[in-house]
Amino acid sequence: MLSKINFILLFGCMPLYAQAFNGVYLTGSGQVSSGMGGISLAQGMDRTSIHDNPANLSYQNNGVDAQISLLNIRSRATFLNQAEEFKSDKLISIPSLAIIKHFDDRLSFGLSLTGAGAAVDYDKPAINGFPTDKAKDNLAIVKASPTVSYKVLPNLSIGANLDIGVEQFRAKGVLAGMDTQGTPMFLDSHGNHWAYGIGGSLGVTWEFQPNWWLGASYISEMRFSKLKEYKDDLLASSQGRINLPERYGFGINHKFNSQVTLAADLLRINWQDADGLGEKGSFNWQNQNVYRIGLDYKFSPKDHIRFGFSHADVVVDSQDTLVNFYANAIANNAWTIGYGRDFGFATLNLAYEYAVNKKIIGSDNSSGTNLSNQNHVFSLGFSKDF
To answer: Contact 47/33 with Cβ under 8 angstroms?
Structure first.
């Protein structure tokens, strides 16, 4: 296994802090899809779509996509009926990258670098006025996905990814309960710890009629090594692991004419089976269906305007708001708009996303703990053929 130093060098351009809107995933993985509600499974609108469906590799031009997204994350919570509200406001950047090279008319190779994660920092202890660490945690995951695709027919491609990941996790100020005298007890803070993971994906893209594409992909659970310092307390139920979940879905993409393209995806994310986040873990996240649709309109020979919408099932049930006080990533509806300009030597792509404020009122054992979350994302990307 690569040493930690090698991983840091490999992923040095990627963030160690992230927040996402489909659990730990961003709505859109690429610079064009970010303006189109995240659509990516059928043929792909940008090179980074090979992360979601490796068969899209065959339908993208040789070249590179580089993108940076600036996230404004706003989480609010009440905790255990305390009157004072908890607030977490973050402004962070997340880069991504994709490179594609066709070996010949059938065989193609590519590489994508993408990030995922979730975090809160309430900037004060979980029990107001109690002398302990401020309540915060951070999960950051970076994936490198070498990709290969092959056109078995001129209009049908299959592809595969090998996903290699590095994960950083830290948590501080985590309330464990009360002692017999009613004094709050907090878990020890173990600081930053690292884990390494591996997974893979398979995909197919089919142009079944001229300018009509269908795409489907399967992404395995990404299994990580243990975060050893957390395996005996916070992550004891998953033996110290936080894995990325199994995902699968399909999409359709239609280019009506030289100006208008419309695409839609349906994605399933199986959080419940993922160690650490699902039933075998601390947060009890529920499985999630994601529905997204996007439109690209070329209103001049060099300019595009884009629109999109994404709706996802909420991963947190009302009876689980208490344990998700430290994982407040519940925004599930997002509106997007994007713009693209071809300058000849390269293309500039801009996107803005508003993840609509979502609020969950705690029930049963979580009564008195309420969560809300909204987010804004600004993306800037450059795309160049070679």
So the answer is: no
What does the alpha-carbon distance between residue 217 and residue 57 come to, in Å, rounded to a whole number?
13
Partners of 216 in the β-ladder: 204, 250
Distance from C-alpha of 323 to C-alpha of 146, rounded to nearest angstrom: 36
Identify the bridge partners of residue 270 per DSSP, sorted by sequence position. 246
Residue among 89, 142, 124 at smallest CA distance from 375: 89
Residues 294-312 have pLDDT tens digits of 999 999 999 999 999 999 9
Condensed to tens digits (0 to 9), the pLDDT of residues 180-234 reads 888 899 988 888 999 999 999 999 999 999 999 999 999 999 999 999 889 888 8
What's the 3-state SS for the chain? CCCHHHHHHHCCCCCCCCCCCECCECCCCCCCHHHCCCCCCCCCCCHHHHHCCHHHHHHCCCEEEEEEEEEEEEEEEECCCCCCCEEEEEEEEEEEEEEEEECCCCEEEEEEEEEEEEEEECCCCCCCCCCCCCCEEEEEEEEEEEEEEEEEECCEEEEEEEEEEEEEEEEECCEEEECCCCCEEECCCCCCEEEEEEEEEEEEEEEEECCEEEEEEEECCEEECCCHHHCCCCCHHHCCCCCECEEEEEEEEEECCCCEEEEEEEEEEEHHHCCECCCCECCCCCCEEEEEEEEEEEEECCEEEEEEEEEECCCCCHHHCCHHHHCCCCCCEEEEEEEEEECCCCEEEEEEEEEEEEEECCCHHHCCCEEEEEEEEEEEEEEEEC
Contact 142, 164 (CB under 8 A): no
Q: What Cα–Cα distance (Å) separates residue 13 from each residue in 71, 220, 346? A: 17, 25, 21
Task: Decide the pairing of beta strands 223-224 and 63-78.
Answer: unpaired
Q: Is 36:338 a contact under the CB 8 Å cutoff? A: yes
Distance of alpha carbon 81 from alpha carbon 378, whole angstroms: 35
Phi, psi of 339 (to 5 degrees): -145, 140
